């Protein structure tokens, strides 16, 4: 058994599954008090505060009618939605959000399809007018809201001419990236062409002294490049073994990423390498793995025995497998992960139980998505208790937990229930998405602490079934 205290249901018991999350003199009660004490004053103010992926309405301290509605994808996979999202945040234009599935992971609602028969994202409504295509949307927002931090040089100036040329360079970079990423033909030639274009991009970053393309201030050029450079950095390390940042190959690119990661607008929308490595193939029709990418992919996927195991290495501008210039703050990152788990425990438990459940009747293109999956709800009590162990260890740490009365204690009699909980935890771990669920530093803490649970349970399960 895995004792959880007198008022917590044991992992394989049949007590009320949710009692230990919110009531009684239990470790989770202490955890909730800790969340209140340490986090209430700094909880994200979704309407007025820093950029946050859960926000559905952004006001930026302004009153009056909201003229813009943004339709973007639920999981924050779409790079074109990312561009418009960043522009709205940088210009601080009040807007509301409706999240729409991408076809590769779900159905689109009929109400959206009636407005946009193509179903393509992003879309905005400006004063009730439906506008599609990210480039058209971004130009329209610049023209309509000139008093909201102009992000492009004035028309007809040399600076504007250069900015327009850089937009064309972004399309060339995009083309050369996909040509290499999505094919295993002419690997060396495609790599050489991509690297030559990256040399041009880096040179343009330096031309005005950096750190941004047009100098010290962010512009629409940076916002246009940003989603692609983010996805290029993730995918080429994973599939080709090439790091475009963090290893000194292109110092201007390192400086540009550091400057972007200093902005709350970007950190609130930034994904991670793992999420992109798995969201790009269903969007692009597949990515071609090269042998040099295999060890990097193992680290990004957390199957190298180190990257998703405690103790986690520190994050930095040169950390591997993923650079992250803001660094990490493990106590705060663990708290963020625990808070999300505690507040959403019922939905998380049900979601995780898709692991030992049945595949859905309507599969989608994204392998890690199965919106119609049938969860194994008969294991709710066990999975609920196991995830409370994870929340507790996130809050107090492994050492403190394991010397407490509420230590994780497994036995060799777990049997099939243990297998179900391991499957649920693995399913959940592999589907923690950034930024949809939490920031990257918190996500890696959650993944590693889920592995702590899995490793403990799997060892006992193996003994029981040997």
TrEMBL record:
<dbReference type="InterPro" id="IPR004045">
    <property type="entry name" value="Glutathione_S-Trfase_N"/>
</dbReference>
<dbReference type="Pfam" id="PF13409">
    <property type="entry name" value="GST_N_2"/>
</dbReference>
<dbReference type="InterPro" id="IPR050983">
    <property type="entry name" value="GST_Omega/HSP26"/>
</dbReference>
<protein>
    <recommendedName>
        <fullName>GST N-terminal domain-containing protein</fullName>
    </recommendedName>
</protein>
<dbReference type="Pfam" id="PF13410">
    <property type="entry name" value="GST_C_2"/>
</dbReference>
<dbReference type="InterPro" id="IPR036282">
    <property type="entry name" value="Glutathione-S-Trfase_C_sf"/>
</dbReference>
<dbReference type="InterPro" id="IPR040079">
    <property type="entry name" value="Glutathione_S-Trfase"/>
</dbReference>
<dbReference type="InterPro" id="IPR036249">
    <property type="entry name" value="Thioredoxin-like_sf"/>
</dbReference>
<dbReference type="GO" id="GO:0005737">
    <property type="term" value="C:cytoplasm"/>
</dbReference>
<feature type="domain" description="GST N-terminal">
    <location>
        <begin position="68"/>
        <end position="149"/>
    </location>
</feature>
